[in-house]
Design goal:
238 residues; ArtM/GltK/GlnP/TcyL/YhdX-like; transmembrane helix; amino-acid transport; cell membrane; mainly alpha; MetI-like fold
Length: 238
């Protein structure tokens, strides 16, 4: 039945239908076992970097060590935002061996993705923190809280609500960007699609199928994002 349905498409032949059917499960499996865990691990590490960088950016401290750290943080953000993610991943995997640093494909991809997410995510988190009225900081100081106590108990919950939509979009974008890991030999979903297509040299149906699978996963992520936003809306309303 599925063969008949696929064969009804204008560009679909019996051979292409069989190719699409045979390639479906390997691509879905690669997404579940590699692409999604790769995105989650990179996002978690990237968010740790992003929070640390954002706190450096918004901290009122102006001693010499803070100024030096602030300078390097700005350089890091400028470099990451000013270069393609593909170049960053290739530098980690193909470039570092030139100085004696050898990293396996999956850790190299995670490092590249995490550094990228850390830079972009830090700007999102910084903007979310700055969106909280200054009076909230002053209220915390008034009742005797330190800077970090005020941030953790008062500012962070409000800033997190503001940051949820853009950070959710960042994760969805990261999931799609895991396809770049194929250039460092990580067998994620897109690399499997390439392998399937290379067996027949018929790329169009396989790449369309891969795009539809990416879209299906992202559609699920869109639903999760919408529910998260509603949950935090109710939390803020209380």
């Amino acid at each position: 039945m599925l063969n008949d349905l696929l064969a009804a498409l204008p560009f679909m032949t019996d051979a292409r239908a069989e190719l699409v059917i045979n390639g479906f499960w390997p691509m879905v499996k690669a997404a579940i076992l590699v692409s999604i865990p790769l995105a989650i691990a990179s996002f978690v590490i990237g968010m740790v970097i992003a929070v640390a960088v954002a706190l450096v950016r918004v901290s009122p401290s102006q001693h010499i060590l803070h100024r030096l750290l602030l300078f390097w943080v700005k350089v890091y953000i400028s470099i990451i935002r000013g270069t393609p993610m593909l170049v960053q991943i290739c530098i980690v995997f193909y470039g570092l061996p030139a100085i004696g640093v050898f990293i396996d494909p999956i850790p190299a991809a995670i490092i590249g993705f995490s550094l990228n997410i850390g830079a972009y995510g830090s700007e999102t988190i910084r903007a979310a923190i700055l969106s909280v009225p200054k009076g909230q900081w002053e209220a915390g100081y008034t009742i005797g809280m330190t800077y970090m106590q005020t941030f953790r108990r008062i500012i962070a919950p409000q800033a997190f609500r503001v940051a949820v939509p853009p950070l959710s979009n960042t994760f969805i974008g990261l999931f799609k960007d895991t396809s770049l890991a194929s250039v460092v030999t990580v067998t994620e979903m897109f690399r499997v699609a390439q392998q399937v297509a290379n067996m027949s040299y018929d790329f169009l149906p396989v790449y369309i199928e891969a795009g539809l699978i990416y879209w299906g996963y992202c559609w699920v992520l869109f639903i999760i994002q919408a529910r998260l936003e509603k949950r935090f809306d109710r939390y803020v309303a209380k």
